[in-house]
Design goal:
The chain has one domain. Helices cover 81% and strands 0% of the residues. It has 4 helices and no strands. The radius of gyration is 18 Å and the shape is elongated. 34% of the residues are buried.
Length: 161
C-alpha cells in the first residue's frame, strides 16, 4: 500500500474517533439538558435557567457526529476499494468539514451567552469537549480533503487515495 493511502487511512481513523466523540457527547447532553432545565426552573423560577438555544445546537451536534461517522467510514472503505470514485468521497468529506465547522461555531457562540457554566460541573466540560472535537474534526477533514486532492492528481481519477 502506498504511503499516501496509509496517511489518509490514519487521518480518517482520527476522523472516525472525533465523530464518535461528537455523536456520543451530543446525544448524552441532548438527553440530559431538558431534565436539567426543568429542575433548574423548579429551583430558580426561570431566573438562571435560560439555555439560549443550547439544546437545538446539541441536536445539530448529533447530526454532525452521524455525518462525520458516515464520511469517515466512506473514506476508510474508499482507501482500500478503488471502485469508489475519489471525488465522491472527498466531496462527502468536504461537506462534513463544513458541517463540523458550523456545529462548532454554533456551540461556541451559544455557550458564550448561556448561563450554563462551570457551576454545572462535568456537563459543562462535556459541552466544551463536544465543541473542541467538532473543531478538531473540521481541521482534520480539511487536511484529508487537501491531501486527497493533491494526491488525487498523481493517482488518477478513480484512485481513492
Amino acid at each position: 500500500m502506498e504511503m499516501s493511502k496509509l496517511i489518509l487511512a490514519a487521518l480518517r481513523a482520527l476522523l472516525l474517533l472525533s465523530a464518535a466523540v461528537v455523536l456520543g457527547t451530543s446525544v448524552d447532553l441532548y438527553q440530559f439538558l431538558p431534565k436539567y432545565q426543568d429542575a433548574c426552573n423548579a429551583v430558580y423560577e426561570d431566573k438562571l435557567c435560560d439555555l439560549q438555544g443550547l439544546i437545538p445546537a446539541l441536536g445539530y451536534g448529533c447530526f454532525v457526529g452521524a455525518l462525520g461517522l458516515l464520511a469517515a467510514l466512506a473514506g476508510i472503505v474508499a482507501t482500500f476499494i478503488d471502485a469508489i470514485p475519489t471525488i465522491v468521497v472527498l466531496g462527502l468529506e468536504a461537506f462534513s468539514g463544513v458541517v463540523y465547522l458550523s456545529g462548532g461555531l454554533a456551540l461556541s457562540i451559544i455557550l458564550s451567552k448561556s448561563t450554563f457554566d462551570n457551576a454545572s460541573g462535568s456537563r459543562y466540560t462535556e459541552i466544551k469537549a463536544d465543541t473542541a472535537f467538532q473543531f478538531i474534526g473540521f481541521i482534520v477533514t480539511m487536511v484529508v480533503v487537501g491531501l486527497g486532492f493533491v494526491w488525487r492528481g498523481r493517482g488518477g481519477r478513480h484512485s481513492a487515495v
